[in-house]
Each structure stands twice: as structure tokens, then as C-alpha cells.
């Protein structure tokens, strides 16, 4: 792509993560083979031959520690990050408290993504994360989970959107 310094774009979906410095936050990511950090300098390099990035949205990277991922991204001090779509398991037993913590972390936290790729029960020898074409695959059908529906209903009162990723 030829450089176009007169153009600028918004990158609406990227992922920053560092499983090396934050192994507890990114256990799941490391387990599926993503072990190399991706940071703002990498993002800038990937766009160095194209239009300038004027703003961007970090989307969660299946973190095992939801709030710690948000704090990590905020700590990157990247001038382009204008919004964060955080992770939350909406059927978690303490989801109301956890969502409140995420919303209070920063005005940049604008939404929640909870991956809902259901493809039937996990078979013998399969992994819910890495098996079949529905990666990453969840362990149960959230559409039939009343706790998930209850967690989802909390988002509007916190000013948070819901990003749906499903098959």
C-alpha cells in the first residue's frame, strides 16, 4: 500500500496484548498459540505504508482477567486508542460487580464483547477453544442461558454496547 500522509483512518477493531509480560491475563491466548506480543509500535509499523491512524478501538483478546486487560491497554498510552471493547462473561456469578468495575475503569470502555460461538457439545479429544471452524468456541449455548440474558440486560444502564461474535 502506498503511503498517503494526507489521509487518515479509524481502525475500528484491533487487539493489543502481551502474554509475555502478563501471562495471568493471557493464559487462554497463550494456550492457543498466540505468544508474541502485539503492541502500539507493531500496529504503527503495520500501517506505516498506508494512511495515518487517527483513532482506534481495542477489542478484547479473550483475557482471563477482564479488568487487568483494560488497565494494560490504558497503560499503553497510545494516542490512537479512543475506545475499548472489554471482555466480560455475561453469565458470570458476579457479573454486575465486574461490569461496574469495567465501566468505571475509564470513559474509553464503551462496550463488552462476549464470544458466543456455539457448535454443539465438546467431543472427546476436542478443545472448546481450538477445535472445529468455530474458533474460539464456547462450551455452552448462551442463547439458552438465563444468567447470560440477565448479564446482557445490565449493559444499557452502564452505557455499554454489546459486540456480538457468533457463527
Provide keyphrases for this structure:
167 residues, alpha/beta, 5-stranded parallel sheet, 5 helices, globular
Uncertain residue ranges: none
Overall mean pLDDT stands at: 88
- What is the first-to-last residue Cα distance? 31 Å
Q: Tell me the overall shape.
A: globular
Q: So what's the oligomer here? A: single chain
Strand order in the sheet with the most strands = 1-2-3-4-5
Share of helix, binned: 25-40%
What structural class is derived from the secondary structure elements? alpha/beta
Helical element count? 5
Give the ordered list of helices and strands. EHHEHEHEHE
Biggest sheet: strands, sense, closure?
A: 5 strands, parallel
User: Mind telling me the C-alpha Rg?
Assistant: 17 Å
What's the β-strand tally?
5
Query: What percentage of amino acids are in beta strands?
Result: 15-25%
Descriptive report:
A 5-stranded parallel β-sheet has the order 1-2-3-4-5, covered by helices on one side. The chain is globular and about 50 Å long. It has 5 helices and 5 strands, in the order βααβαβαβαβ.
Nutshell version of this structure?
With 167 residues, the chain is an alpha/beta fold. It has helices at 27-31, 40-46, 66-75, 95-105, 146-154; strands spanning 4-14, 51-59, 81-87, 109-115, 161-165.
Amino acid at each position: 500500500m502506498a503511503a498517503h500522509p494526507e489521509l487518515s483512518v479509524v481502525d475500528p477493531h484491533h487487539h493489543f496484548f502481551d502474554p509475555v509480560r502478563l501471562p495471568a491475563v493471557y493464559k487462554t491466548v497463550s494456550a492457543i498459540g498466540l505468544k508474541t506480543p502485539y503492541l502500539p509500535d507493531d500496529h504503527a509499523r503495520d500501517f506505516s505504508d498506508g494512511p495515518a491512524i487517527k483513532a482506534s478501538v481495542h477489542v478484547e483478546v479473550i483475557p482471563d482477567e477482564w479488568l487487568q486487560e483494560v488497565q494494560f491497554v490504558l497503560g499503553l498510552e497510545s494516542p490512537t486508542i479512543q475506545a475499548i471493547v472489554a471482555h466480560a462473561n455475561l453469565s458470570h456469578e458476579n457479573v454486575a460487580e465486574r461490569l461496574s468495575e469495567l465501566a468505571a475503569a475509564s470513559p474509553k470502555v464503551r462496550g463488552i464483547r462476549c464470544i458466543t460461538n456455539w457448535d454443539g457439545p465438546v467431543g472427546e479429544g476436542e478443545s472448546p477453544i481450538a477445535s472445529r471452524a468455530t474458533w474460539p468456541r464456547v462450551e455452552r449455548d448462551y442463547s439458552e442461558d438465563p444468567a447470560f440474558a440477565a448479564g446482557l440486560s445490565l449493559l444499557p444502564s452502564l452505557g455499554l454496547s454489546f459486540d456480538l461474535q457468533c457463527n
